[in-house]
């Protein structure tokens, strides 16, 4: 029976609090990996730099106040094509703030069918702008969530009018800093209007950055309706009017940044501003005061808020909050890996709703995860191709994995927003070398997998070869060999297939741990997010009926079943010990 509580408590004890002697006796051979995966907070590997454990005792009763710092609150503004999306990614990666975009909020609320989302949908469907009060309500609700309160927030492109700014002021929502990216109009216009469409092939070109291959193609190119200089100038004028309207509200905290430089140089200036701001907030929070409470105890209790892992992961269906939590963490890990130049990546996140072997599998959750990743990179100006493998085999042997049946149609009919991303920056394709077009910047492959008697590896290898140094990201791949006629698939070329499958680097991994042969209760979890180590957690029931996850150990490589059992039993790690049994075999395969 699943736990009835639907609460989403986020808690974690530090490793120092783990009491090995209190660990129940486990049978080392009875603990196994489930194919069920889950998700952790982006802060799971970040200890808040501002927590205070110090005491000053020159006089009796004098202590350093151990109240934790108020987190950063940042607003950022920039015209279309100013590079604001790129800087938002870099800010989130460095400072761990919660990124809040009105476009993302609108899509999420409409997709969830909330009351606010339904009201917004009425206006969007009729081609009208969503009223300020609806947008402000969505932003206010998002800012009130616990993660935004604890980690701080980055408000992207909002407010856009004086009325919106005043609404936030009335609610006492005010940023610490207001960053404006300043780029000359001629540069912005060139970035926006240089695109051209080939009406025959559907390809998108840019007159300077990606010119057509021949004069014949060049002659038939057309300008899209939204890419005319007049419309771009109109959008810039609207932006300037809005920016001027709210400038008085934030004039004392406005910092204008030259956005017509390399992104690394721009972020260096932003990093300097935010780091100094964080330093100033830290200095203000550490004040000698008379107090009788135990600072160390208070800081220890707050530490559980800085690192976290969602609880009640066997409660189905997952809440919208938990799903969004998953999507955000996977996205940040993927962005870090891509920004570091990694090109062959895989994400493995099979929470119960994403585990096709469980009867609670939900294809919509997988599609939403793919959409979040694709839209984020598209917002940064990258052309993303989302690929789903087609039918494999021929004649009577033709077919495709049941998990992927209908997936392409679902992607095509999904809501990809009202900003024209689908068909321009995002396209749907299949897996194979022919699917790689010159204008594609990156590829997201949805659950590529082998089927009985058929292997996707050859098409996948041909596609990655054609992609060259462009990123290819596999979402929940299943590339193990499956038996074919007379076992041929298991023997012919098997070593090369396994070598190729292992060439993809994990940028996100989360696996729940159960007793062998069961899927309840959850015993613990293993989690890794690029570029950090694997962390092993133990789930602990609390007297109040809640649960928490206790950090047991970290590993540079994916731990073996023996290492996991030793950690649960409190045994010292044996570095010379090798994986044994079925997990040893599988770890070698993958």
TrEMBL record:
EC number of this enzyme: 2.7.4.3
Transmembrane segments: none
Keywords: ATP-binding, Chloroplast, Kinase, Nucleotide-binding, Plastid, Transferase
Catalytic activity: AMP + ATP = 2 ADP
InterPro entries tied to this protein: Adenyl_kin_sub, Adenylat/UMP-CMP_kin, Adenylat_kinase_CS, ADK_active_lid_dom_sf, Chloroplast_ADK, DUF1995, P-loop_NTPase
Subunit structure of this chain's protein: Monomer.
UniProt name for this protein: adenylate kinase
Source organism (scientific name): Gossypium tomentosum (Hawaiian cotton)
């Amino acid at each position: 029976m699943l736990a009835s509580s639907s609460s989403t408590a986020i808690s974690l004890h530090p490793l120092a609090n783990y009491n090995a002697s209190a660990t129940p006796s486990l049978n080392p051979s009875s603990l196994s990996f489930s194919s069920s995966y889950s998700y952790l907070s982006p802060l799971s590997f970040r200890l808040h730099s501002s927590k205070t454990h110090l005491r000053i005792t020159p006089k009796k009763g004098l202590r350093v106040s151990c109240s934790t710092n108020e987190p950063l609150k940042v607003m950022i503004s920039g015209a279309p094509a100013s590079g604001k999306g790129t800087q938002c990614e870099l800010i989130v990666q460095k400072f761990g703030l919660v990124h809040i975009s009105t476009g993302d909020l609108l899509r999420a609320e409409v997709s969830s069918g909330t009351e606010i989302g339904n009201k917004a949908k009425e206006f969007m469907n009729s081609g009208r702008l969503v009223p300020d009060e609806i947008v402000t309500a969505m932003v206010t609700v998002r800012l009130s969530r616990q993660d935004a309160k604890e980690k701080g927030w980055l408000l992207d492109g909002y407010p856009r009018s004086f009325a919106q700014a005043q609404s936030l002021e009335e609610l006492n929502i005010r940023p610490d800093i207001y960053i404006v990216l300043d780029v000359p109009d001629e540069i912005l216009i060139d970035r926006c209007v240089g695109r051209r469409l080939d009406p025959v092939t559907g390809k998108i070109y840019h007159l300077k950055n990606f010119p057509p291959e021949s004069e014949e193609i060049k002659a038939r190119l057309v300008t899209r309706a939204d890419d005319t200089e007049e419309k771009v100038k109109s959008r810039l004028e609207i932006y300037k009017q809005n920016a001027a309207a709210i400038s008085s509200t934030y004039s004392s905290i406005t910092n204008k940044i030259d956005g017509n430089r390399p992104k690394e140089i721009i972020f260096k200036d932003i990093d300097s501003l935010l780091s100094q701001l964080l330093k100033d907030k830290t200095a203000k929070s550490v004040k000698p005061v008379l107090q009788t409470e135990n600072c160390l105890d208070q800081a220890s209790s707050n530490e559980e808020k800085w690192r976290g892992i969602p609880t009640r992961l066997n409660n189905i269906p997952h809440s919208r909050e938990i799903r969004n939590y998953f999507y955000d963490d996977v996205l940040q890990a993927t962005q870090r890996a891509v920004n570091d130049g990694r090109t062959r990546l895989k994400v493995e996140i099979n929470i119960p709703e994403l585990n096709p072997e469980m009867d609670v599998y939900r294809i919509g959750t997988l599609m939403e995860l793919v959409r979040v990743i694709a839209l984020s990179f598209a917002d940064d100006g990258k052309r993303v191709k989302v690929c789903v493998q087609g039918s494999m085999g021929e004649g009577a042997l033709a077919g495709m994995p049941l998990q992927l049946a209908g997936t392409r149609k679902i992607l095509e009919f999904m809501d990809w927003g009202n900003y024209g991303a689908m068909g321009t920056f995002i396209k749907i394709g299949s897996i194979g070398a022919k699917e790689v077009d010159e204008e594609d910047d990156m590829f997201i492959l949805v659950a590529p997998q082998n089927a009985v008697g058929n292997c996707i590896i050859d098409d996948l290898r041909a596609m990655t070869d054609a992609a060259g140094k462009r990123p290819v990201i596999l979402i929940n791949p299943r590339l193990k060999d499956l038996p074919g006629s007379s076992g041929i698939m298991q023997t012919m070329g098997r070593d090369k297939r396994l070598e190729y499958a292992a060439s993809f680097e994990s940028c996100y991994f989360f696996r729940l741990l159960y007793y062998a042969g069961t899927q309840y209760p959850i015993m613990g979890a293993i989690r890794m997010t690029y570029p950090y180590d694997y962390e092993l957690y133990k789930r602990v029931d609390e007297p109040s009926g809640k649960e928490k996850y206790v950090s047991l150990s970290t590993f540079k490589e994916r731990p073996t079943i023996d290492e996991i059992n030793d950690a649960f039993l409190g045994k010292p790690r044996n570095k010379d010990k090798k994986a044994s049994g079925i997990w040893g075999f599988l770890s070698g395969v993958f």
